[in-house]
Amino acid sequence: QVQLVESGGGSVQPGGSLRLSCAASGFSFRSDAMSWARQAPGKGLEWVSSVGTEMSTAYADSVKGRFTISRVNAENTVYLQMNSLKPEDTAVYYCVKGGKMYYTRGPRGQGTQVTVSS
Asked: Is the distance from CB of 48 to CB of 57 less than 8 angstroms?
């Protein structure tokens, strides 16, 4: 079965950086787009970024220029490098199997907490 395990979350000060990882198993990783989504306290799930099978990338306007998504097919892993973090980036971050159109209904992991606070 599909299994997605996120890691790398934590607490950082504004302006700091974190790198999230998602280890995938149970499906043909290289054949699927992958996405990151996040849910802030009291808010709905928000799409953050996606990477296609051909390494094309897309970003939400709120993170463009600060976050970088990547994937390593040989490792069945997708990454999210987050720089210049802001308090509004505070959320639980989820790895999702599928592209942007699937971010609300695709299989996802348990999430990893990111807290940006001074």
From this structure: no
- Cα–Cα distance, 29 to 34 (Å, whole number): 9
Return the bridge partners of 58, or none.
Answer: 50
Q: 49-58 contacts: CB < 8 A, separation 24 or more?
A: 49/80, 50/99, 50/100, 50/103, 51/78, 52/99, 58/100
In the block, which residue shows the tokens 């999702």? 96
Question: What pLDDT, in 10s, does the model give residues 72-89?
Answer: 999 999 999 999 999 999
Q: Which 3 state secondary structure label does DSSP give 14?
A: coil
Token pair of 110 as six digits:
């348990």
Residue 66 backbone class (left: φ over 0; alpha: ψ -120 to 50; beta: rest): alpha
**Each residue of 34-71: pLDDT tens digit?**
999 999 999 999 999 999 999 999 999 999 999 999 99
